[in-house]
Design brief:
The chain is an alpha/beta fold and 304 residues long. It has 14 helices and 7 strands. The protein has a 7-stranded mixed β-sheet with strand order 1-7-6-5-2-3-4, with helices on both faces.
Length: 304
Amino acid sequence: MTGEPGAMSFQSFVAKGYAEGETIRALAAVTGRSYGTVRSALVAGGVRMRKRGHRPTTTMMAVADARARREELSVELLRARLSSGLTGAAAGKRAGISQSKVSKVETGRLLPKVVDVARLADVYGVSPEVRRRLLALAAKVVRDAEHRRAVLHRGGARRQVAIARAEADARTVRAFAVCGVPAQLMREIRPNVRLVVVMSEGALRSASEHWDRLRQVSRQRNVELGVIPWHVRVDLPDAGFVVFDESMVVFDLLAGNVVITDPDDVRGHLRSFQRLHGSALFGDGMRALLDSARSEFEQRRSAL
């Protein structure tokens, strides 16, 4: 969609463009208006907003749902302010917060506190039903953010204790490795724990110093060790992760850990792990792949 609105009203123009698939940013560039002005016009016109960064459905729908909740909250607060007839500055003054904060909340750039949402709802004079829905949504958005917080080693001692406790209490530990060998395989494996590990073939081949250990633990009754061969077509996650029972997911980073405890997110990772598990070779098949990697490695080393 190109050109200026012309005789068509600004609101009608952006609504039509948005319906045809144009982004808010593109419409802002065409009309010479700001992103916030275009978005406000769409909301005021009752246009159903698309999710930001919309992507096809994946096994990580829980993360997408959290983003959708945050977007819904920002849109509903913007809609309530527009319905009240207040400017952002006037709304902020009455609610005891800055105009800048009101703007950032309405554009989704700032996570509001539940108390801020309550103050804004009161200022806008929304119905009791709408107020309850806004507060419930705000509380959920805050919990979403807490569950996705990256905890660095520095200053994250409490969370490290929580991770260690979750691992100690877990009866089933599932680990996926896209590179390297999961630490759970290198430690003594408790007999009362079921350990299920899936590795990429690249991770297996990069760990020649641990091949004997991998072969040994693969024969333990309480250990399932699988490898996804290179020729199997499956989307691999960008990073490895560990799931403790159905209560916690941990991603290990160079600077710390990302810890997820939201039940929906944990279930999403369990589904992802199950998909990876179904693409892996276990038992004799895994050991045959390991022997093939060892043979190729030794041939190349002897040719040097």
